[in-house]
């Protein structure tokens, strides 16, 4: 007897500020089957203002429909023309919420851009949404910015039950200490509530050596160009041991940095092969590119992509610096997949192992974690 084909429940997916597609790939890889029904997520449209990111997304996420990626400044985007969706996601620009810098929040150039996501929720009333940002978002403007963001999410569309949590990516199998706030909202008329998926790798983090060497990166993998180091930088790195940076290493005077103010810990910091990588970033000048634990050089973009859990056949478009930015700004694919899979399980009525959110939304926003942790 032929096996009966499962019914499908497909959530049509839209995304603003899509970047190269970390969230989208995680969504596309997510599925869950229960009671003869297969729950999954399928791309409908995406938008970003960066042309290289749009080309990367179109090539890897929706190569059969490249025109579904709209490359345009969100402030000039006609949201009504994008198309009906059931699922929405965005990592709205985090520059003004970062713990590095002035934390301008709503007073900065990028803070108010989250409102374009609220506009999408009001226009299409998707059944769920995912919004990602840096940990510093909860304390911008003395916490008032985050309260306003949550309030606007809760009161958009048909109304949403919002769950906020600060995820430690390394606790979910990502070989990187990347900590991000993710908000998941489910249409309150559906009577469902999202549960934060329980960590899977506490006490057994994936090391950067495992990430880069098991299996080895193919010699013909795309985006593997090694950026040439200056002789001075290469010599400096030879004195810096794995896990050390320019301040903790013993350097000859000629190789020391003449910096008297903020001494960022990641400056010329070499990865510790027996630990997850420190946070891979998309911006910053000399000394911030992430440095190999054995070779005296900066990481290649393919190595950065491995650390962000992109597959080796995922091709990034643009210059070396453009690709570095795309990778650093992306959400780790594995973390995204974990969250989207938990959402699909929620819709399927499946009980799964979960933990209490570490950001409590009631009587004001309370965080149960420390940014210095």
Based on the model shown, name its key terms.
373 residues; alpha/beta; Rossmann fold; 8-stranded mixed sheet; two-stranded antiparallel ribbon; 23% helix; 18% strand; globular
Structure commentary:
It is a single chain. Helix 1 packs across helix 9. The protein is an alpha/beta fold and 373 residues long. The chain has helices at 22-28, 51-60, 115-124, 144-154, 208-213, 231-239, 301-307, 320-329, 333-348; strands spanning 7-16, 31-34, 37-48, 69-71, 87-90, 128-134, 160-168, 179-187, 196-197, 354-355, 359-361, 365-367. It has a domain at 8-204 and 330-367: Vaccinia Virus protein VP39 (Rossmann fold, 3-Layer(aba) Sandwich), CATH 3.40.50.150. Helix content is 23%, strand content 18%. Mean pLDDT is 90; it is low at 96-106. Strands 1, 2, 3, 4, 5, 6, 7 and 8 form an eight-stranded mixed beta sheet that branches. Strands 9-10 form a two-stranded antiparallel sheet. The N and C termini lie far apart (57 Å).
What topology emerges from the helices and strands here?
Blueprint: E1 7-16, H1 22-28, E2 31-34, E3 37-48, H2 51-60, E4 69-71, E5 87-90, H3 115-124, E6 128-134, H4 144-154, E7 160-168, E8 179-187, E9 196-197, H5 208-213, H6 231-239, H7 301-307, H8 320-329, H9 333-348, E10 354-355, E11 359-361, E12 365-367
Helix pairs in contact: 1-9
